[in-house]
Amino acid sequence: MGTGHSAHAFARALATVPGAHLAAVGSRSPARAEAFARTHGAATAHGSCTGPATDPGVDAVYVATPHPWHHTHALAALESGKHVLVRAPLAANDLQAAELIQAARDRDLLLMEGSAPRHVPVQRLARTMVEQGAIGAVLSVHAELGAGLDHDHAHPFFDAERGGGALSLLGTHLLSAATWYLGELTVLGAARQLAPGRTVDTLATVLARGGGGATATLTCASRPDVARAVITGSAGRIEIEGTGQATDAVLHRHGAAPERLHREEGADTHRFQALEFARCLNQGLTQSPLMPWSHSRALAQAVDRVRDVAELMDDPAHLTGAGRPTGSAGAAHAGGGRR
């Protein structure tokens, strides 16, 4: 469902999954659907996003539409008996996420949120090493993610109707990574800087506490082109460059030389999401162990809480004339939540 950047990336990834093929695509624009089908070899092109939900040739649906429509489109697929993979976030808020999970549970269907940090091999390796005590007890997670964009009203990142904004498009990835290491988060405070018009944020910073008192400091923004995370423990730390694009990490143990962690498989998060979804489907699972429903609920609740408590400020770069619109200088991950 959808024909944007993530849909194209997922279609290319699906072609590498044994036993899987692209059966159909749906878009609000029949012309875009037909062009997408020609490009990726889909058998059917539907002139509506929900077309694949009722297509008898479809077993499972990937929801790649803007996040304000994730709930509507995923629910349509589930109610039609299709298994569903949703580009993160699962839904715009916790209430919607709970409804989708209940719909999947009632119908014994697989429902999975495609959280980028949880599917890349080097990210999974880092978490395994943390679980094995490589850095001792986890004390904190510090992460930053930036889209590398100058302000451009025409870009989806700055379009409230398409679910734009730093917290909506980028913050969910950081919160997902933090909950992976720290469990359910208690949001202690947050701040958001607003673009002109005050409809979307260009920066969001979150301070949260996880299990055992460990803390998370998370910052996402439109401008800097950055993606890094540091997981610090009582006996060392792991530094990761990248989120869904990471291939390398560095393990620092107290009193030892740094140890490079690398995975040759690459960092195509869409491919690994497709492989995990296919594995769960073939094994008859309704939830992925990498992103179970409880984690999707915890993530949605954390995002809701950030929106509730965040201090709202005008972006000083725009007030001083910096960062004038120059067109997009990069691409942001789609996603989002309620504003």
Automatic annotation (TrEMBL):
Residues 124-239 form the GFO/IDH/MocA-like oxidoreductase domain. It comes from the Bacteria. SUPFAM superfamilies: Glyceraldehyde-3-phosphate dehydrogenase-like, C-terminal domain (SSF55347), NAD(P)-binding Rossmann-fold domains (SSF51735). InterPro entries: Gfo/Idh/MocA-like_OxRdtase_N, Gfo/Idh/MocA_domain, GFO_IDH_MocA-like_dom, NAD(P)-bd_dom_sf. Residues 2-114 form the Gfo/Idh/MocA-like oxidoreductase N-terminal domain. Keywords: Oxidoreductase. Gene3D superfamilies: Dihydrodipicolinate Reductase, domain 2, NAD(P)-binding Rossmann-like Domain. Residues 316-339 are annotated as: Disordered. Belongs to the Gfo/Idh/MocA family. This is Gfo/Idh/MocA family oxidoreductase. It comes from Nocardiopsis coralli.
